[in-house]
Design goal:
The protein is α+β, with helices and mostly antiparallel strands. 42% of the residues lie in helices and 16% in strands.
Amino acid sequence: MDIPANKKRTPVLSFPIPSTFDAVYRKDSPAYPVGPHSHNGVELYFTLSDLPDVLLNDTVSRVPAGTLLIIPPFCVHQLYHEAGTIYERYILSINTSWLDGVFCENKDAFSYLKRSTTLLLTPDAAGTEALLHHLQLLQSFPDSSSPKALAHLFSFLDVLNETVNRLAPESNRTFPVSSTQKQINDMIAYIQEHINEPLTVADLAGHFYLHPGYLSRLFKKHTHISVGRYITLQKITTAQSLLRDGLTVAEVQEALGYSGYAYFFKTFQKNTGISPSRYRAQYYKQEP
């Protein structure tokens, strides 16, 4: 999603997935790349360009061209960011709630699309050709809910299943990180461990024995977001997951260390475009 530089951007951190799926192909240079964000569905991102500084939830690393990333719901990520650099990629977003509805009698179907960690796969030439062929077909349909589009989606999922099963030993692979990326990953891990506390830059700097200004510059260089903004993003993403699990708004507010209901309410709505109470009513599905 590219936004013209002359447009003011609403600071939404979580983007909804369409009712079924959305497939796009892009080969361009972002005028205004989307910052770190998450989705309420799964995103399959096939990069045909090298990505030197990728943020995937709790890790910053490089990802080479020819990699298929399967990014689960509520995973904070940012994949490209350099203005003036051409990025080529196919992106397929799938509504996992819709997928569960289709396979209601087999909740384990395509479970790897909903697991908590990102899969990074590097298919061989034949596998790449098969996946790209289906992705090209899917992005050509103007109506993703048409019978023909859905038939091609399930054909793609068959190919994807074969690819995942064939590359299962490497499905949890990671790519090398630099020494500074390792520092950032340690900071992110600390934030995750203390997400229920009112964390500040000073807290983080004190723990890692770094000057707050230096820490802030280093963090933003590799994640392309400020420390405070990233903490907010992780808290809101966690809040979405907890609300979907059935916790009340008050319980989530307390669990994430927000001092007051009003502040949590305002922060959640600002960053998701919907109030936490409406979000819970929309996404929490009680067992019959």
